């Protein structure tokens, strides 16, 4: 007797059937406060203390608050826009592991708990890096004697992210797939629309400022919209870096805020005004060759270089707080480094760096032998202390 064990991929799916899914989609499309661009944005962003990054978005779309009004660019959304919906497209992603560099740090994404992500109106948000590859698209009752046009659009930022015609017989890709580049930890909708094939050849629209209504009218598809689904996209360092490289917005400091909030609480951290954090620094430590006799023993150390930033420092030995023990020469607290009034022009790489210090960086040496009672100050240790620039 043979025992056969089938290991099925883990799938996140919530919506049970086509009719229920279409009904739920229509509710979410009409909701005025479901996503970050909803009506609540007025109170958050129309005052002097508003955070410019939290409130950043396409200015020409600011008057549209529901997903439907923003999608069709209609100040007053009506359910008639979706009157012909009859299918619910299934969007399936293979969430692949990988690594990437963002905000001057290496990020490694291992095996994820759900290696298959299926889009759903009430799904939990998914990280952009996990849906970076083109999804599989299909639906119940899909026939191969019909042709459709499929597109995906990032409704929050008004971009065209995917466009294919003649689906599923001989798919012709007019716009390669791109994931949403959501740089904030708030839900952002990536919407998929299915049109029955029109009488005209589809023209490729402007991808950076995609106007769905104009696209439908120009390609004679106004009455051909038969399917709609959405992917709820969160944020990660991958999307943050993509936006930073575009020169749109730099939100790397939000990663620092998140790490600090999740780190072990200390009196210093608990008093930091994290909500006011607006910038971030990368720190490089350079250790010259050391050959000296200190604290009753010989110290030999090869040159080394350490590249530290706040995204990784909570796991880095250089960032661990020292514990005061019997073999620590100096028992009093010490300020290791202090810089004030840093000019923005000096926050750069290379030899320029920061050159004006109030207190130079230095280290206090931990004695290895109890008979050694000499306290080595940071000034006396200048030749072997770690120097860095920001």
TrEMBL record:
What is the organism field in this record?
A: Heterorhabditis bacteriophora
- The protein, known as: TGF_BETA_2 domain-containing protein
- Which superkingdom is the protein from? Eukaryota
